[in-house]
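Schema walkthrough. Field components (list of strings):
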Amino acid sequence: MTTTQREDTSLQNYTVSSVRMEFDKFIVPTVTIFILLLLFFFMLFPLWMILKLSFFEGGELALANFTLNNFKQYFTTAYTLRSLWHSLYVSGVTTVIVTVIIFFFAYALTRTTIANKTFFRNIIMMPLVAPSIVQALALIYLFGRNGLITSHFFQTDWNIYGATGIIVSEVLYCLPHAFVILFTTLSAVDIRLDEAAESLGASPFKVFTRITLPSAKYGIISAAALTFNLTITDFGNPVVIGGNYSVLATEIYAQVTNLYRFDLGATISIILLVPSLGAFMLNYYISRKSFAMISGAARPFIPPTRRLKKILYSVYCYIIAFSIILIFATVIIGSFVKVWPYDWSLTLAHYKFPSIGGYSALWTSLWISLIVGIVGSFVTLVAAYAMETRKPYFKQVVYFFSVMPAAIPGLVMGLGFILAFNKPYYWFYGTPWIVVINIVICNFTLGILSSVSNLKNIDPSIEEASISLGGDTISTFFKIIFPLSRVAFIQNFTYFFMRSMTTISAVIFLVSATVHLAAIEIIMLDNDGWTASANAMCTCIIVIVFVMLGILHLVNKWVSKTSGREVMIES
Amino acid sequence: MKKLLLTLPLAALMIAGTTQGVQAEGRLTIYCSAQGDWCQKASETFGKKYDIKVSMTRNGSGSTYAKILAEKENPRGDVWYGGTLDPHSQAGVNGLLESYKSPNLDKIAEPYRNPAASKQNHSTGVYIGILGFSVNTDLLKDAKMEMPKCWSDLIKPEFKGKIQMASPQSSGTAYTALATFTQLYGEDKAFEYLTKLHQNIGQYTKSGSAPGKNAARGETMVGIGFLHDHGKEKGKGFPLELVAPCEGTGYEIGGLSIIKNARNMDNAKKFVDWALSKEGMEVAATVQSFQVPTNTEAAIPAEAIRPEDVNLIEYDFVKYGGEATRKALIGRWVEQVKPLER
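Field assembly_structure (string):
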């Protein structure tokens, strides 16, 4: 509704003619073109290089060079082909498990009257503050060949390496992502339907299968698609716990860093792109549809839950929360004990990092993340503003390219960056700047989507007032839009910062002798067998992210308190 | 005003970023294939002494070779420190390295002055390390098994899943093992052995030093690798017994080379001179890396396993450092051994 209204009013805006408006006509297309160029150069160009290298001999674009040899080699070599089946299997199983677990978890939080809901909501989000490797590190300490539980409590030879380990760690990693979707869905669906069915005499089971499940089906599919996408593109967990069980992501890494077969790496990237793109498209298509499902009359009231049901759901939620806490506790405790699980005396020795990255890697990560946070949230806000309120000619094109990064696995983007920019004349290659650009591009989608939805909430009349009082686009943006979206800006900043501190797959190809990043150091330390120090590095990242979240929480509070007043004064 | 407030910190961050970025004066980039803490200690000590900003990245010698090859047109590293000699040899033969005769060369024991296949002073030996395996004695006791003494013990069925070795694709250590078996048994017999060994391998690690650390922590019962890496873990108090196999075993020469067209050539030479000096060699022992240094003036750590105390094979560094042999052996392993079901 608001969009159509705005379209009308914004047309009127342009009738206010002045020199300033002329300038206006110039600035919006400039911004739009800038965003488009940014995405073309830093997203499509690297992707194009990958495509070129996998389909053309030596990456030289010519008809005579066209070849399917790389694909042939991939599909006819048993041990590389295996990684495809492994990936599909692991992601498939993870998807089913996560969807089922999270559905009931979200159900418990939205439809029952169990206690401690805030606690559960906070705990389930915890995996977001750590790199997607923390799960694997903890599981090895608990269930590895010398795990606390496997070999010390039960003294069995069984261990978690391989497919089982990848699946369990991916499940724990994907929980928050799937939760956000299903929680939103289940809170939005009208509970009165369930009540009506129940009062008409339907059994609880029938209500569940005929009403509850179907009404949440888009959310379920969307959560499943997202989980599948996250799992198949994840690199950190499989590389640590997979053992000899290779998946597509680890195979790309092995081809590129062990053998420097960039052509095969590019080829496997294309193969990985197919299922991840598919899952993304499904998710995108579904999430557009699901908004239509949300009824305006949805009611937050939850009828009291039967005692037994309540106890069961409480226990269920505690088990899941406990598993997540166990993961974090294991890694953190593991970083402080001398020799897990032999010698439990406390030590800080593991915090003396045995690699040159060490603490400098942490600082590099920190300031890179600050820049990513500022640049990322600013660029996405400007792009969303230009797109949403000014309706440039190619809005649809910009929008399409803006959501595209979410479909591209970080690892593939990183490989594309090497192929595209490892030339002496790209000065930013080999500097931290390429890392900044890569992370901003990889997380562009969510930044854009949240900025757009936030801008939709700003009353267009404030903006119109500014314009009719003679404010041009730039001053309107800085004096009206920016202050009003400061809360969203901080949210975006938080998101970009967190992603930047914790991402592994996007930047693993971009670290070098001069740029060390903390999240990558974890993998390097673990590769060389410094597992306890890997845990220590992981703990440092978690602490930094938590401190930042605390700071941003305070800032957020302060901003939301003051922003209203300040806007009044300035406009 | 708002704009200014926002752009100021941004600009400050950007300046902070660029100063950490480029510039290439008084700098040195080391590609290190020795143990992580050694690499770091060496980089720091050298950097401090000569006031040079040292960047270092650690990777297995196999991966480092591949990296230098990939960066041939636009070299990003200056000097390649440590790791088995074979990949160094191959890089020399393929024209990726700079010839350099350090003035400190006369202090190096004769066989290690110019050991690489090219014979053009591309690489110098900095240390000698002996291949073998180490056994976690706690796990051995729990399983009531006997201490393995020979390579042939490792293919007994009771070791199924209990052995770790690095992957020859990424690790020079594992390639040394491949070459050692080939020289011990002849190629075909060696692959028969590797096929049987494969059945007992729990995991092929990426890094050559990982199996020793994992054996120390009990993640695996047996770890194959260089014994000096394992001695380090033993020194920390882990229940580890080091075995130099009875049939005889191979050894490594740690390589040190300058990368061709290095951007910081003078500093690279300075580093090589330093690394070959008594002082440079003795850094290793300070981080409990107990290789035997090749500088005859440098002290041999008491914990080091000396070549004269074990049964060593006549390791042919020229043949096994050659590209053809290396490619053939690793290729055969990847095709015939790696894909086998266990």
